[in-house]
Amino acid sequence: MKFPIEQVRANFPALAATDSGRRRIYFDNAAGTQVPQHTISRITDFFERYNSNTGVFNTTSVEVDAMFDETTAALADFLGTSDPGEIIIGANMTTLTYQLSRSLAHRFAPGDEIIISRMEHEGNVSPWLQMAQDRDLTVRWLDFDRDSWCVEPESLKPLLNERTKLLALNYASNMTGGVNDVKALASLAREAGALVYVDAVQFASHRLIDVKDLGVDFLACSPYKYFGPHLGVVYGRRDLLESLHAYKLRCASEDLPYRFSVGTPAFELIAGLMGTLEYFQWLAGLVGVTGSRRELFSAAYNAMGEHEDHLSSLLLEGLLSIPGLHLQGAKSLEHRVATFSFVHDKHLPSAIAKALSSEGLFCHWGDNYAVEVAKTLGLDPVEGVLRLGLAHYNTEAEVKEALEIIGRVLA
User: Fold this and answer.
1) Fold for domain 5-35+292-410?
2) Alpha-carbon torsion, ordered 246, 249, 255, 257, to 10 deg
3) Whether residue 257 has a cis bond before it, omega within 30° of 0
4) Which residue in 15, 111, 122, 362 has the fewest CB atoms around it within 10 Å?
Protein backbone atom coordinates (compact mmCIF):
# COMPACT_ATOMS: atom_id res chain seq x y z
CA MET A 1 0.00 0.00 0.00
CA LYS A 2 1.00 3.64 -0.37
CA PHE A 3 3.32 4.88 2.36
CA PRO A 4 1.21 6.93 4.85
CA ILE A 5 3.52 9.94 4.78
CA GLU A 6 0.96 12.48 5.99
CA GLN A 7 0.06 10.41 9.05
CA VAL A 8 3.73 9.80 9.75
CA ARG A 9 4.61 13.47 9.56
CA ALA A 10 1.67 14.42 11.77
CA ASN A 11 3.20 12.21 14.46
CA PHE A 12 6.44 14.27 14.55
CA PRO A 13 5.73 17.67 16.15
CA ALA A 14 9.10 19.13 15.12
CA LEU A 15 8.18 18.78 11.44
CA ALA A 16 5.54 21.47 11.88
CA ALA A 17 7.96 23.95 13.48
CA THR A 18 8.91 27.06 11.52
CA ASP A 19 11.51 29.82 11.82
CA SER A 20 9.77 33.17 11.46
CA GLY A 21 7.24 31.44 9.24
CA ARG A 22 9.82 29.60 7.11
CA ARG A 23 9.47 25.82 6.90
CA ARG A 24 12.34 23.52 7.89
CA ILE A 25 13.68 20.72 5.70
CA TYR A 26 15.36 18.23 8.00
CA PHE A 27 18.12 16.67 5.91
CA ASP A 28 20.48 16.48 8.89
CA ASN A 29 19.12 13.09 9.97
CA ALA A 30 22.48 11.32 9.79
CA ALA A 31 23.47 13.39 12.83
CA GLY A 32 20.25 12.72 14.73
CA THR A 33 16.57 12.30 13.89
CA GLN A 34 13.41 13.97 15.13
CA VAL A 35 11.17 12.02 17.52
CA PRO A 36 7.53 10.94 17.26
CA GLN A 37 4.78 11.85 19.70
CA HIS A 38 4.93 8.30 21.10
CA THR A 39 8.43 9.08 22.42
CA ILE A 40 7.52 12.50 23.77
CA SER A 41 4.40 11.19 25.50
CA ARG A 42 6.30 8.38 27.20
CA ILE A 43 8.89 10.81 28.59
CA THR A 44 6.20 13.22 29.77
CA ASP A 45 4.24 10.39 31.33
CA PHE A 46 7.33 9.27 33.26
CA PHE A 47 7.83 12.69 34.82
CA GLU A 48 4.13 13.25 35.48
CA ARG A 49 3.23 9.85 36.90
CA TYR A 50 6.12 7.72 38.15
CA ASN A 51 9.37 9.66 38.33
CA SER A 52 11.35 7.49 40.74
CA ASN A 53 14.49 5.53 41.34
CA THR A 54 14.28 1.77 41.25
CA GLY A 55 14.57 -1.31 43.42
CA VAL A 56 12.15 -0.61 46.31
CA PHE A 57 8.47 -1.32 47.05
CA ASN A 58 7.04 2.10 46.24
CA THR A 59 4.40 2.02 43.52
CA THR A 60 6.46 4.39 41.39
CA SER A 61 9.61 2.30 41.79
CA VAL A 62 7.79 -0.88 40.85
CA GLU A 63 6.55 0.85 37.69
CA VAL A 64 10.09 1.94 36.81
CA ASP A 65 11.35 -1.62 37.19
CA ALA A 66 8.54 -2.90 34.97
CA MET A 67 9.19 -0.20 32.36
CA PHE A 68 12.90 -1.01 32.25
CA ASP A 69 12.22 -4.73 31.82
CA GLU A 70 9.60 -4.01 29.16
CA THR A 71 12.00 -1.79 27.22
CA THR A 72 14.91 -4.23 27.28
CA ALA A 73 12.56 -7.00 26.13
CA ALA A 74 11.31 -4.82 23.25
CA LEU A 75 14.89 -3.86 22.34
CA ALA A 76 15.81 -7.54 22.27
CA ASP A 77 13.02 -8.14 19.75
CA PHE A 78 14.13 -5.05 17.82
CA LEU A 79 17.72 -6.26 17.48
CA GLY A 80 16.90 -9.92 16.91
CA THR A 81 17.77 -11.69 20.16
CA SER A 82 15.41 -13.57 22.46
CA ASP A 83 17.47 -12.64 25.53
CA PRO A 84 16.86 -9.18 27.11
CA GLY A 85 19.94 -9.79 29.26
CA GLU A 86 22.04 -9.27 26.14
CA ILE A 87 20.89 -5.64 25.87
CA ILE A 88 22.92 -2.90 27.56
CA ILE A 89 21.53 0.65 27.68
CA GLY A 90 23.88 3.53 28.44
CA ALA A 91 24.65 7.17 27.84
CA ASN A 92 25.68 6.83 24.20
CA MET A 93 27.45 4.48 21.80
CA THR A 94 30.90 5.96 22.41
CA THR A 95 30.66 5.76 26.19
CA LEU A 96 29.49 2.15 26.05
CA THR A 97 32.26 1.25 23.59
CA TYR A 98 34.87 2.79 25.85
CA GLN A 99 33.41 0.91 28.80
CA LEU A 100 33.43 -2.44 26.99
CA SER A 101 36.90 -1.85 25.55
CA ARG A 102 38.23 -1.49 29.11
CA SER A 103 36.59 -4.79 30.01
CA LEU A 104 37.75 -6.59 26.86
CA ALA A 105 41.33 -5.41 27.44
CA HIS A 106 41.61 -8.02 30.19
CA ARG A 107 41.31 -10.76 27.55
CA PHE A 108 44.25 -9.54 25.47
CA ALA A 109 48.01 -9.81 25.95
CA PRO A 110 50.98 -7.85 24.55
CA GLY A 111 51.56 -8.81 20.93
CA ASP A 112 47.93 -9.66 20.24
CA GLU A 113 46.42 -7.94 17.21
CA ILE A 114 43.23 -6.01 16.57
CA ILE A 115 41.82 -4.91 13.22
CA ILE A 116 40.02 -1.59 12.73
CA SER A 117 38.39 -0.68 9.44
CA ARG A 118 39.03 2.72 7.89
CA MET A 119 35.26 3.17 7.37
CA GLU A 120 34.68 3.83 11.06
CA HIS A 121 33.20 6.68 13.03
CA GLU A 122 35.78 7.67 15.62
CA GLY A 123 33.60 6.17 18.34
CA ASN A 124 34.64 2.75 17.05
CA VAL A 125 38.31 3.74 16.64
CA SER A 126 39.70 5.71 19.58
CA PRO A 127 38.54 3.26 22.28
CA TRP A 128 40.39 0.43 20.53
CA LEU A 129 43.49 2.47 19.72
CA GLN A 130 43.79 3.51 23.36
CA MET A 131 43.17 -0.05 24.52
CA ALA A 132 45.92 -1.22 22.16
CA GLN A 133 48.30 1.38 23.54
CA ASP A 134 47.52 0.39 27.11
CA ARG A 135 47.96 -3.34 26.43
CA ASP A 136 50.80 -3.16 23.88
CA LEU A 137 48.66 -4.62 21.10
CA THR A 138 49.31 -4.39 17.37
CA VAL A 139 46.74 -2.44 15.32
CA ARG A 140 46.09 -3.45 11.73
CA TRP A 141 44.06 -1.17 9.48
CA LEU A 142 41.44 -2.59 7.13
CA ASP A 143 40.87 -0.50 4.00
CA PHE A 144 37.58 -0.09 2.17
CA ASP A 145 37.22 -0.43 -1.58
CA ARG A 146 36.82 2.82 -3.53
CA ASP A 147 34.66 1.15 -6.18
CA SER A 148 32.19 -0.65 -3.94
CA TRP A 149 32.64 1.80 -1.03
CA CYS A 150 32.59 -1.21 1.29
CA VAL A 151 35.07 -3.40 3.11
CA GLU A 152 35.62 -6.42 0.89
CA PRO A 153 36.24 -9.89 2.38
CA GLU A 154 39.36 -10.25 0.22
CA SER A 155 40.85 -7.24 2.02
CA LEU A 156 40.18 -8.74 5.44
CA LYS A 157 41.57 -12.23 4.84
CA PRO A 158 45.29 -11.29 4.68
CA LEU A 159 45.05 -9.43 8.00
CA LEU A 160 43.69 -12.38 9.96
CA ASN A 161 46.00 -14.74 11.83
CA GLU A 162 46.25 -16.66 15.10
CA ARG A 163 47.08 -13.42 16.97
CA THR A 164 43.94 -11.56 15.81
CA LYS A 165 41.66 -10.94 18.77
CA LEU A 166 39.17 -8.30 17.63
CA LEU A 167 37.65 -6.81 14.48
CA ALA A 168 36.07 -3.34 14.85
CA LEU A 169 33.70 -2.81 11.92
CA ASN A 170 30.80 -0.57 11.05
CA TYR A 171 27.57 -1.62 9.38
CA ALA A 172 27.20 1.61 7.40
CA SER A 173 29.51 4.59 7.00
CA ASN A 174 28.26 7.85 8.48
CA MET A 175 30.06 9.72 5.69
CA THR A 176 29.80 7.67 2.50
CA GLY A 177 26.66 5.67 3.32
CA GLY A 178 28.40 2.45 2.23
CA VAL A 179 26.97 -0.71 3.80
CA ASN A 180 29.27 -3.59 4.71
CA ASP A 181 28.44 -7.28 4.41
CA VAL A 182 28.79 -7.71 8.16
CA LYS A 183 27.67 -11.33 8.15
CA ALA A 184 30.41 -12.41 5.71
CA LEU A 185 33.13 -10.34 7.38
CA ALA A 186 32.14 -11.48 10.87
CA SER A 187 32.23 -15.11 9.75
CA LEU A 188 35.82 -14.72 8.53
CA ALA A 189 36.90 -13.00 11.75
CA ARG A 190 35.28 -15.55 14.03
CA GLU A 191 36.79 -18.44 12.04
CA ALA A 192 40.15 -16.90 12.93
CA GLY A 193 39.14 -16.78 16.60
CA ALA A 194 38.53 -13.03 16.76
CA LEU A 195 35.68 -11.17 18.42
CA VAL A 196 33.59 -8.83 16.27
CA TYR A 197 32.40 -5.42 17.51
CA VAL A 198 30.01 -3.70 15.09
CA ASP A 199 29.00 -0.04 15.01
CA ALA A 200 25.48 -0.04 13.56
CA VAL A 201 24.63 3.54 14.50
CA GLN A 202 24.20 4.74 10.92
CA PHE A 203 22.45 1.56 9.77
CA ALA A 204 19.77 1.23 12.44
CA SER A 205 17.58 4.10 11.23
CA HIS A 206 17.35 2.65 7.72
CA ARG A 207 17.24 -1.14 7.93
CA LEU A 208 16.22 -3.66 10.60
CA ILE A 209 19.06 -5.51 12.34
CA ASP A 210 19.27 -9.22 13.19
CA VAL A 211 22.22 -9.77 15.51
CA LYS A 212 21.86 -13.54 15.64
CA ASP A 213 21.79 -13.87 11.87
CA LEU A 214 24.85 -11.62 11.59
CA GLY A 215 26.82 -13.78 14.02
CA VAL A 216 28.50 -10.84 15.74
CA ASP A 217 29.69 -10.67 19.33
CA PHE A 218 28.76 -7.06 20.01
CA LEU A 219 26.66 -4.52 18.11
CA ALA A 220 26.20 -0.89 19.10
CA CYS A 221 23.54 1.58 18.01
CA SER A 222 22.18 4.98 19.07
CA PRO A 223 18.41 5.44 19.54
CA TYR A 224 18.68 9.17 18.81
CA LYS A 225 19.64 8.19 15.26
CA TYR A 226 16.46 6.11 14.88
CA PHE A 227 13.79 8.48 16.19
CA GLY A 228 14.46 7.99 19.90
CA PRO A 229 16.05 9.87 22.80
CA HIS A 230 19.78 10.40 23.24
CA LEU A 231 20.95 7.02 24.51
CA GLY A 232 23.33 4.27 23.49
CA VAL A 233 22.50 0.57 23.16
CA VAL A 234 24.85 -2.39 22.85
CA TYR A 235 23.95 -6.01 22.18
CA GLY A 236 26.49 -8.46 23.56
CA ARG A 237 26.54 -12.25 23.61
CA ARG A 238 25.46 -13.45 27.05
CA ASP A 239 28.43 -15.77 27.57
CA LEU A 240 30.82 -12.91 26.84
CA LEU A 241 29.00 -10.37 28.99
CA GLU A 242 28.95 -12.81 31.88
CA SER A 243 32.65 -13.60 31.57
CA LEU A 244 33.95 -10.04 31.08
CA HIS A 245 35.57 -8.04 33.84
CA ALA A 246 32.86 -5.46 34.63
CA TYR A 247 33.89 -2.00 35.81
CA LYS A 248 31.13 -1.30 38.30
CA LEU A 249 30.43 -0.43 41.91
CA ARG A 250 31.15 -3.24 44.37
CA CYS A 251 27.54 -3.33 45.51
CA ALA A 252 26.07 -3.32 41.99
CA SER A 253 24.26 -6.37 40.67
CA GLU A 254 26.15 -9.14 38.86
CA ASP A 255 23.02 -10.00 36.88
CA LEU A 256 22.64 -9.03 33.24
CA PRO A 257 22.07 -6.47 31.95
CA TYR A 258 22.57 -4.58 35.24
CA ARG A 259 26.24 -5.52 35.73
CA PHE A 260 27.19 -3.03 32.99
CA SER A 261 24.97 -0.22 34.29
CA VAL A 262 27.27 2.41 35.77
CA GLY A 263 25.18 4.68 37.97
CA THR A 264 21.45 5.27 37.84
CA PRO A 265 20.12 4.96 34.28
CA ALA A 266 18.29 7.85 32.61
CA PHE A 267 14.93 6.20 33.18
CA GLU A 268 12.96 9.02 31.56
CA LEU A 269 14.90 8.51 28.31
CA ILE A 270 14.51 4.75 28.52
CA ALA A 271 10.77 5.32 28.81
CA GLY A 272 11.02 7.50 25.71
CA LEU A 273 12.88 4.72 23.89
CA MET A 274 9.97 2.39 24.64
CA GLY A 275 7.76 5.00 23.00
CA THR A 276 9.95 4.92 19.88
CA LEU A 277 9.63 1.14 19.67
CA GLU A 278 5.86 1.53 20.05
CA TYR A 279 5.93 4.03 17.18
CA PHE A 280 7.38 1.39 14.85
CA GLN A 281 4.57 -0.97 15.84
CA TRP A 282 2.02 1.79 15.23
CA LEU A 283 3.50 2.37 11.76
CA ALA A 284 3.24 -1.34 10.97
CA GLY A 285 -0.45 -1.13 11.81
CA LEU A 286 -0.84 1.81 9.42
CA VAL A 287 0.45 -0.33 6.56
CA GLY A 288 -1.93 -3.14 7.49
CA VAL A 289 0.38 -5.60 9.26
CA THR A 290 -0.31 -7.54 12.43
CA GLY A 291 1.75 -10.17 14.22
CA SER A 292 4.53 -10.51 16.77
CA ARG A 293 6.53 -7.51 17.88
CA ARG A 294 9.46 -8.56 15.69
CA GLU A 295 7.11 -8.95 12.72
CA LEU A 296 5.77 -5.45 13.33
CA PHE A 297 9.29 -4.03 13.47
CA SER A 298 10.08 -5.77 10.19
CA ALA A 299 6.94 -4.43 8.50
CA ALA A 300 7.63 -0.88 9.65
CA TYR A 301 11.21 -0.98 8.39
CA ASN A 302 10.17 -2.47 5.07
CA ALA A 303 7.70 0.37 4.54
CA MET A 304 10.18 3.00 5.72
CA GLY A 305 12.90 1.54 3.49
CA GLU A 306 10.81 1.53 0.33
CA HIS A 307 9.84 5.15 0.88
CA GLU A 308 13.43 6.15 1.64
CA ASP A 309 14.73 4.35 -1.43
CA HIS A 310 12.37 6.34 -3.63
CA LEU A 311 13.54 9.61 -2.08
CA SER A 312 17.17 8.51 -2.29
CA SER A 313 16.93 7.76 -6.00
CA LEU A 314 15.57 11.25 -6.64
CA LEU A 315 18.18 12.96 -4.49
CA LEU A 316 21.04 10.91 -5.89
CA GLU A 317 20.05 11.57 -9.49
CA GLY A 318 19.73 15.27 -8.80
CA LEU A 319 23.06 15.58 -7.00
CA LEU A 320 24.93 13.74 -9.73
CA SER A 321 23.57 16.15 -12.34
CA ILE A 322 25.05 19.25 -10.65
CA PRO A 323 28.27 20.51 -12.32
CA GLY A 324 31.35 20.49 -10.11
CA LEU A 325 29.78 18.28 -7.44
CA HIS A 326 31.73 15.17 -6.43
CA LEU A 327 29.82 12.56 -4.47
CA GLN A 328 31.87 10.79 -1.80
CA GLY A 329 30.17 7.41 -1.96
CA ALA A 330 28.44 4.96 -4.27
CA LYS A 331 26.57 6.44 -7.21
CA SER A 332 23.83 3.81 -6.95
CA LEU A 333 21.49 2.69 -4.19
CA GLU A 334 23.10 -0.75 -3.97
CA HIS A 335 24.94 -1.38 -0.69
CA ARG A 336 24.25 2.07 0.76
CA VAL A 337 21.95 3.90 3.15
CA ALA A 338 20.38 7.32 2.62
CA THR A 339 23.45 9.30 3.72
CA PHE A 340 24.99 11.42 0.96
CA SER A 341 28.19 13.45 1.19
CA PHE A 342 29.86 15.60 -1.43
CA VAL A 343 32.48 18.23 -2.15
CA HIS A 344 32.40 20.91 -4.82
CA ASP A 345 35.04 22.38 -7.12
CA LYS A 346 34.34 26.00 -6.18
CA HIS A 347 32.69 26.08 -2.77
CA LEU A 348 33.87 24.93 0.66
CA PRO A 349 31.55 22.58 2.58
CA SER A 350 31.26 25.11 5.41
CA ALA A 351 30.15 27.84 3.00
CA ILE A 352 27.64 25.52 1.34
CA ALA A 353 26.27 24.44 4.73
CA LYS A 354 25.86 28.04 5.85
CA ALA A 355 24.03 28.98 2.66
CA LEU A 356 21.72 25.94 2.78
CA SER A 357 20.94 26.45 6.45
CA SER A 358 20.07 30.08 5.80
CA GLU A 359 17.33 28.80 3.49
CA GLY A 360 16.01 26.30 6.00
CA LEU A 361 17.69 23.25 4.49
CA PHE A 362 19.30 21.57 7.49
CA CYS A 363 22.57 19.73 6.83
CA HIS A 364 26.00 18.96 8.31
CA TRP A 365 29.56 19.50 7.19
CA GLY A 366 33.08 18.52 8.28
CA ASP A 367 34.60 15.11 8.85
CA ASN A 368 31.58 14.11 10.98
CA TYR A 369 33.97 12.17 13.25
CA ALA A 370 34.80 9.85 10.35
CA VAL A 371 38.46 10.79 10.66
CA GLU A 372 39.95 7.76 8.91
CA VAL A 373 37.44 7.98 6.06
CA ALA A 374 38.33 11.64 5.50
CA LYS A 375 42.06 10.79 5.48
CA THR A 376 41.56 7.94 3.04
CA LEU A 377 39.57 10.16 0.68
CA GLY A 378 42.14 12.95 0.90
CA LEU A 379 39.61 15.46 2.16
CA ASP A 380 40.45 18.78 3.74
CA PRO A 381 40.88 17.92 7.44
CA VAL A 382 38.80 20.89 8.55
CA GLU A 383 36.24 21.23 5.79
CA GLY A 384 35.51 17.56 5.12
CA VAL A 385 32.25 17.17 3.21
CA LEU A 386 28.73 18.56 2.98
CA ARG A 387 26.47 15.80 4.30
CA LEU A 388 22.76 15.19 3.74
CA GLY A 389 20.80 12.40 5.41
CA LEU A 390 17.24 11.34 4.59
CA ALA A 391 14.66 9.80 6.91
CA HIS A 392 11.31 8.15 6.27
CA TYR A 393 9.44 11.31 7.34
CA ASN A 394 10.96 13.33 4.48
CA THR A 395 8.92 13.92 1.35
CA GLU A 396 9.37 13.97 -2.40
CA ALA A 397 8.50 17.67 -2.38
CA GLU A 398 11.29 18.32 0.12
CA VAL A 399 13.81 16.48 -2.05
CA LYS A 400 12.82 18.51 -5.11
CA GLU A 401 13.01 21.79 -3.19
CA ALA A 402 16.34 20.82 -1.65
CA LEU A 403 17.81 20.06 -5.07
CA GLU A 404 16.62 23.43 -6.35
CA ILE A 405 18.26 25.21 -3.40
CA ILE A 406 21.53 23.23 -3.70
CA GLY A 407 21.70 23.85 -7.45
CA ARG A 408 21.13 27.55 -7.00
CA VAL A 409 23.68 27.86 -4.18
CA LEU A 410 26.36 25.95 -6.09
CA ALA A 411 25.72 27.91 -9.29
Assistant:
1) Aspartate Aminotransferase, domain 1 (3.90.1150)
2) -70
3) yes
4) 111
